[in-house]
Amino acid sequence: MSEALASVQPDGPIYRLGRSPDPWAWPDWSYASTDGTFGNRWDDAAGSYRVLYACSQRLGAFVETLSCLRPDLDVVAALAEIAGEEENLPQGVVPRRWLDGRLIGEAVVHGRFADVGDAQSLATLRRELASRAIHYGLSDLDAGVIRLSAPRAFTQEVSRFVYEWRDEDGAFAGIRYRSRLGDQFLNWAIFEPPPETNDALNDASGSSIDPDDPDLLEALRLLGLGLG
């Protein structure tokens, strides 16, 4: 089979949580770390383009954003050993002020995305980035590494590899990957386009988040969090 990266396109709108007034604004370079990235999985290892992260499922956008607020595993394990009704146990609490200034965004995105979890993509990445995987102490390059085990510096190099990829269909607009928080969530890492090209986003909008939003409440439940 010839060298290739599998190509996919969103089949509907995508969603992300972002800051007012525009949840689809590119992150300000002033917040980048000294390595030129913003500390996210598919950021550019060379620090020359920015990346927006979104999800095909509105619920998934809440889950992805709120996951960093989950109680640590040692806390969860300790609580599991406490006798009594589960609903009476303390849990992580997200203050309602967390919603202030945050919007749930919806947009249509065009262009093709590299499906890095596809078998052909993995075969190409394994062959082309073998030396870099060894550099980061990885014993192999497979779907488990891409999703869970790989150090972010390595997946950031994968991002740069995809960004620079060109074939008969041109460049990729970003990367599609499955969430580590649930196979049902399809995530999209959208590359900042070069100045001479059109933005991949269409009909981008944002709306305020109600404390009783069903997807917010379900995300809190799934993550073991409460809204205070």
**Average pLDDT level:** 89
How many individual helices? 7
| DSSP, total strands | 10
Q: Helix content range of the residues, please?
A: 25-40%
The gross shape turns out to be globular
SS-based class: alpha+beta
User: Biggest sheet, open or closed, and with what strands and sense?
Assistant: 5 strands, mixed
Order of helices and strands: EEEHHEEEHHHHEEEHE
Strand order of the largest sheet: 1-6-7-8-3
Termini distance?
54 Å
The unreliable regions are: 73-90
Q: List the domain count as a whole number.
A: 1
Radius of gyration: 19 Å
Estimated share of beta-strand residues: 15-25%
3D architecture notes:
The chain has one domain. 28% of the residues lie in helices and 24% in strands. It contains seven helices and ten strands. The chain has helices spanning 58-66, 73-80, 119-128, 130-135, 143-149, 152-164, 214-223, and strands at 7-8, 14-19, 51-55, 92-94, 102-109, 113-115, 174-179, 182-191, 201-208, 225-227. The strands form three sheets. The protein has a five-stranded mixed beta sheet with strand order 1-6-7-8-3. Strands 2-5-9 form a three-stranded antiparallel beta sheet.
Concise structural overview:
This protein has 228 residues and is an alpha+beta fold. It has one domain (7-227).
What key attributes describe this structure?
single chain, 228 residues, alpha+beta, five-stranded mixed β-sheet, three-stranded antiparallel β-sheet, 28% helix, globular
Spell out the blueprint of helices and strands.
Blueprint: E1 7-8, E2 14-19, E3 51-55, H1 58-66, H2 73-80, E4 92-94, E5 102-109, E6 113-115, H3 119-128, H4 130-135, H5 143-149, H6 152-164, E7 174-179, E8 182-191, E9 201-208, H7 214-223, E10 225-227
Parallel strand pairs: 4-10, 6-7
Antiparallel strand pairs: 1-6, 2-5, 3-8, 5-9, 7-8
